[in-house]
Specification:
2 copies of one chain form a homodimer.
Chain A lengths: L1 H15 L3 E4 L4 H6 L11 E5 L5 E5 L14 E5 L5 H9 L4 E4 L5 H10 L5 E4 L1 H9 L3 H22 L10 H14 L4 E9 L20 E10 L7 E2 L2 E6 L5 H19 L7 H14 L11 E3 L6 E5 L12 E4 L2 E4 L3 E4 L2 E6 L2 E4 L8 E2 L3
Parallel strand pairs in A: 1-5, 3-4, 5-6, 10-18
Antiparallel strand pairs in A: 1-2, 2-3, 7-8, 8-9, 8-10, 11-12, 13-16, 14-15, 16-17
Helix pairs in contact in A: 3-4, 8-9
Chain lengths: 369, 369
Amino acid sequence: MHAERMDRVRAAMAAQGIDVLLLSVGPDLPWLVGYEAMPLERLTMLVLPREGEATLVVPRLEAPRVVERPDVFALRPWEEAEDPVAAVAALAGPASVVAVGDRTWGGFVLDLQGVMPGGARWVRASAVTGPLRARKDPEEVAALRVAAEAADRVAAQLQGGEVPLRGRTEAQVSADIGQRLLDEGHHRVNFAIVAAGAHAASPHHEPGEAVIEAGQVVLCDFGGTWPTPSGAGYCSDITRCVSLGPPPPEVADAYDALRAAQAASVAAADVGTACEAVDAAARDPLVAAGYGDRFIHRTGHGIGVEEHEDPYIVAGNAAALEAGHAFSVEPGIYTPGAWGLRLEDIVVATDAGPLALNRADHSLVLVDA
Amino acid sequence: MHAERMDRVRAAMAAQGIDVLLLSVGPDLPWLVGYEAMPLERLTMLVLPREGEATLVVPRLEAPRVVERPDVFALRPWEEAEDPVAAVAALAGPASVVAVGDRTWGGFVLDLQGVMPGGARWVRASAVTGPLRARKDPEEVAALRVAAEAADRVAAQLQGGEVPLRGRTEAQVSADIGQRLLDEGHHRVNFAIVAAGAHAASPHHEPGEAVIEAGQVVLCDFGGTWPTPSGAGYCSDITRCVSLGPPPPEVADAYDALRAAQAASVAAADVGTACEAVDAAARDPLVAAGYGDRFIHRTGHGIGVEEHEDPYIVAGNAAALEAGHAFSVEPGIYTPGAWGLRLEDIVVATDAGPLALNRADHSLVLVDA
């Protein structure tokens, strides 16, 4: 699998005239070779010339963690007193177009620019890897599906009243949901937003010491990473709101509009449809219903090894969905100082139509918890 | 406090001829303004011209998370369809020397280089912030101390046999230690290495499904982040080894040598001493005792808002320790396929001599757990 991905990457490099690909921290490296670099000041970097052997430059004390794959890459451990940037530059050779991983620490990019040939053109590695990673193969879709099913089980526990809410802080509930993600098989919790009442009007609210009260609507947006034998993990991401009592009419009305808009957007996600059209399928009815200025973010983001990746479901993205594209559909309505609502599923575009991976109840469930 | 730090940063920029400082994800931003950027594809960046107002460019949906400090920075939220890179470039103006945060995603550095004036010189922000952040003020030392005391309490629980070991997997013990770090007051677990038997020969071993057995030596290296009202958190980091039964003579001998070397290195950490001399104070006796080729890493790293930061206690670093420098002293001895040992404290250089913040028992404690 990794050898096959390497071939596709080399072909894309050739098509774009890229001489060398440099990958460090971030999702490209585990996707390509099954190894995740530690985010440390000690540089780990895969050097992949368009032609010639790939080499993983790695701190000697990380080397024991690497599962060697001699058919895919050579290993070049560096010692504590060595300069890994010089080692990378030597392996890269006289490149005139260099692609570097989007999440590589900027300091290393500057260091490399200082020692590699002047006048080289530097581009984001995602120009090469983004379109390849966006098209999930069947094993990747299967991993996203089991991750989504695990997230659904946690959502069902929330909706079933098994997650105590009233009288606990948002932070406590967030920790509880995180533990449930692990219990259901994720190997890492990426986030667990719990936003009660007016806090839900901030889409990325940080769960804090606020105590959840009767009558509040609680927005929960959570996800983790599901391990696979390939060495790369795949992400889940789901949002459900629950209500600790009958919601006020304006909230119930807004939720009805939101649910319909979300479903319309999912239904629009056919192969060949532009990403911006999928965004519009959620946005247009909300604008028509008067919620336009309260839907303050894009409709969704791609998902895979990375929580957010190509394709982005956003106005201005005219790229067409392809079979295997996996992404969130998550419109929201936010009323500052009062309440917020969001509804999110992960969807895969397939030749047989849009496939929603999340099946947890889509209604604003009343819970007594 | 933030205004005072801003003044020191501007003075350092002037001394180094830097026109604008650009800070995104990573520890510089919370240290300087109390806000931590989310590691997302949506750019958050502080633009600090050497003269003129600082501005925090932030995605609109993150803006509610920002604690506004109008005396320190202006807020510039950007909308989903806007280009934040262009917004940063406009605020930065015609800079000829640009400093950018070391951990800024490389993709954003390339994007900024593409739209900011050609021919500008780009340098790491740590050239400005590193020396300033390395010298901890009394409040920062106090935060490191309470974090170290909390880590010590967890180490004491480990050494006191309160953390079950035998029959559990490394991963389970790692999760247990992580939970204890939170219970003792950390707000985030950064890592909890648990390496049993031969696994400890890999300094950054990832705790896995291996079941811990009677008779093994178990290396535990763990730390978290301690919250402070300033908005920046400070890190703990400690390593202790425990033995599930009397260790073999070669392990006991190695531990004695390691403990003496670690104590000698701590004792050497006076203001004015070169970092490389502190490294040598641990390394020389281990080399003399025949362990030189098994001590495969530097002696330590600075610590503060970041787990690893300036100053690095490593051969080749001739910089002298200054009052307020805080760093780890953590020599190790690793025998591949057999066992590994490491002993680590956090130490602050003060005018009254080296101050070791960790006080947990430094011996190879026998535990029955």
